[in-house]
Structure formats: structure tokens, C-alpha cells
Design brief:
By secondary structure, the protein is mainly α. It has ten helices and three strands. It has two domains: 104 residues, Arc Repressor Mutant, subunit A, CATH 1.10.10.10; 74 residues, Winged helix-like DNA-binding domain superfamily/Winged helix DNA-binding domain (Arc Repressor Mutant, subunit A, Orthogonal Bundle), CATH 1.10.10.10. The chain is 52% helix and 6% strand. Strands 1-3-2 form a three-stranded antiparallel β-sheet. Helix 2 crosses helix 4.
């Protein structure tokens, strides 16, 4: 008997979560792909839900944590809260006060999402803590890097973490530098690289970079 697929509860690890969201390339191309790659899987589920909900509304829409639980099917309020905090740190969303001004409950806060272009601009303008964890700005004229982003985002075999490691390689980072940026060990980086090499049919880092850039 085949193993049963575990129900989604929002606790999936980012390093094993496939990109698989072709719609992320539809509207703003590489900017949207880069923003998605900077999020954990749970953060991206919330962010995507907020963007979709806002498109359906006449004005920028705000969401409570419980709204997002309903939209995404994530059953844990604490998981949603942690993801919202991460999205705020990454400048992808903002907290817009409370749904009920007299309520002091955390889930009464409302949040709105910024567009991918706005997210990139906000991160660049802030120039503060955490910027090293984000991918390069796709609007800096580096069309060669744009190619790498598109090829990584369009590869359904890559996990989200593998995509991040591959782009770090293109930026010329060493294994140690990649580990520091992604907050993982150097051994973990090597583990991901072995899988990336297999999936791209290459044996060395230089071949991988050439495959992504040419």
C-alpha cells in the first residue's frame, strides 16, 4: 500500500517545498518569482492569498489572521501569526491597525499585502537588517541574472531551497556564504547542491552556472 499523503497544516519545511506555482511568473515575471523565493512556503501561501483577494476587491483589501486561515486552509493560528510576522520583517505586508479599535486580541489586527514591485522597492529603500537574505533586485539591468531566475522558477523539479541555493551560486557565493545567507550549515548547502547537479544533469558548479546563464 502506498503511503498516505499528510494533510497540509502549514508546518511544511521550506527546503522540501516545490515552487510549482506557474502563476507566479504570469504578471510581473522575475520580480514575483524573486519575492516568492524569499518567503517560506507558509509565508508564500498567505501572501498569495492576500494578493488574490486584493485583486478581487475594488480597493486594497485587508485581512485578519482568521481570514487567512479560512483562505489558505491552515488550521493553526500560531502558524499563521508567525508567518505574518515573517512577511512584515521581509517588507511584503504591513499591519493596518485593528479590525475593531477596542479589541486587544492579536487576531483582530488586519494586514495588507504589497505588490511584488512594491516589496522590492521597500526592501531596497530600507537598506537595513535582513536585506542580505533577499535575492538581487531584478531591475538592476542584469538581464543575464534574469535568465537564471526564470530558469530556476520554471523548473518544477527544484525545491524552493534548491532554487535559492542555485541562484546564490549564480551570484558567485561560496558554500559558506550561501549557508550564512540562508541560515543553514555548509554541509546542508553541499547536500542541496548534489541534488541540484543531478536535476540539471551537471557535475560541477561552473557547469550549473553556465546552464542557468547561457
Amino acid at each position: 500500500m502506498l503511503p498516505q499523503k499528510r494533510p497540509t497544516d502549514g508546518s511544511v519545511e521550506s527546503k522540501t517545498y516545490p515552487l510549482g506555482e506557474k502563476s507566479e511568473q504570469a504578471d510581473t515575471g522575475n520580480i514575483l518569482a524573486l519575492v516568492a523565493l524569499s518567503h517560506t512556503p507558509v509565508e508564500q501561501r498567505l501572501y498569495s492569498a492576500m494578493l488574490s483577494g486584493s485583486k478581487e476587491a475594488a480597493n486594497p483589501k485587508t485581512f485578519t489572521a482568521r481570514d487567512l486561515m479560512t483562505l489558505t486552509g491552515i488550521r493553526s493560528l500560531s502558524t499563521v501569526r508567525r508567518a505574518l510576522e515573517g512577511l512584515m520583517v521581509k517588507m511584503s505586508i504591513d499591519k493596518n491597525g485593528r479590525e475593531n479599535g477596542e479589541s486587544r486580541r492579536d487576531h483582530a489586527h488586519v494586514y495588507r499585502a504589497y505588490s511584488p514591485s512594491e516589496v522590492i522597492t521597500r526592501r531596497k529603500e530600507r537598506d537595513g537588517v535582513g536585506l542580505s537574505h533577499y535575492a538581487s533586485d531584478p531591475r538592476n539591468g542584469n538581464h543575464v541574472f534574469d535568465k537564471a531566475v526564470a530558469r530556476v522558477a520554471d523548473n518544477p523539479m527544484l525545491s524552493r531551497r534548491e532554487a535559492q541555493v542555485a541562484l546564490c551560486c549564480v551570484e558567485g557565493l561560496t558554500n559558506a556564504e550561501i549557508g550564512k545567507r540562508l541560515d543553514v550549515s555548509e554541509q546542508t548547502v553541499k547536500f542541496h547542491l548534489r541534488h541540484i547537479f543531478l536535476k540539471f544533469g551537471v557535475k560541477r558548479r561552473a557547469e550549473l552556472i553556465s546552464r542557468l546563464l547561457m
